[in-house]
Known about the structure:
By secondary structure, this protein is mainly α.
Amino acid sequence: MNGLLSIPGFTAFVMILFMNATVDIAHKVTIQNVLLKSFEGDTLMMLSALINAMILLPFILLFSPSGYISDRFSKTTVVRYAALSAVGLTLLITLSYYQGWFYVSFALTLLLAVQSAIYSPAKYGLIKALAGVDNLGVANAVVQAVTIVAILLSSILFSVIFEMYYGAQTTPGAILPDMVLIGWILVGLSMVETLFAFRLPHLDAATHSGSFKWQSYFNLSYLKSNVSRLRVNENIWLSIIGLSLFWGVGQVIIAAFPAHYKVMTGDENAIVIQAVLAVSAVGLIMGSMVAGRFSKLHIELGIVPVGALGLFGSLGLFALASEVYIMGIASLLFGFFGGLFIVPLNASIQYFAPERELGTVLAGNN
């Protein structure tokens, strides 16, 4: 860990990851908490699923453009422009909170996700460039741990702020003006992220030729070509399938849990709901660090089946749980075994991906 932090630019990179994840989760959690206070039952579950879909769909629809941008331009430059755009988006989010424009705020979730989808391949492509091949396993463990810490703190902190300023209103447009402080915090965090982005060392683009052909994008030629690239190397393809299953299951839990908890307990306290979900983040940190220890000298893929079996067991416990503390234990175990599962798979993708196609491969993974 100390060796990684001594690498020029790696500390700034870690701070960028932390700020970026904090901002994304803070706005998402705020909108989810507004939904929780305003709707019930099937409507709540449907809107929660919709907000998650809005966050995920840009990663699918922008697969080819985001991969092209990451490979065609300097990853440092992409990260800097993306960080600057986050400042503008958070200012718009703050305005929507102040005016009580719920639908605008809801739509800005999609724009924030578009920014993340374009940002992500370049951001995660920096891991290999900064840490080097020999440190991939440990670097990915650090990246996962830092990201999950950000998610954990953001989920809890902004839910606490939400409950502190919530004035018992029951409509989204009436609730949002009370959350202006959250908006200004997001603006501040985005500005700090931008400052760290300009402290990254400049890295040359992986390729300097070629232009993006929109016709090939709309007729799905790029999609077919890029998916074929992912399938050339079985190690990359199977790692992507494994990660997709893990995050897919995780999104289902996140989307369904607030409504499930409300039905099972009759309680709608946003702090408790986010706390149970955040416990999985603690587990993921623990699992990631254990995986990093196993992967000090090489990428240890032998712990992936252990992680998969543990995930199966934790999901079974989740399904049977009716008490909050049992839900918390199931959430912790899901996170821990998830860390064992995803750290070697992420490192494997970065190791086997050719440098000139790294952006496309990481976009495909997203």
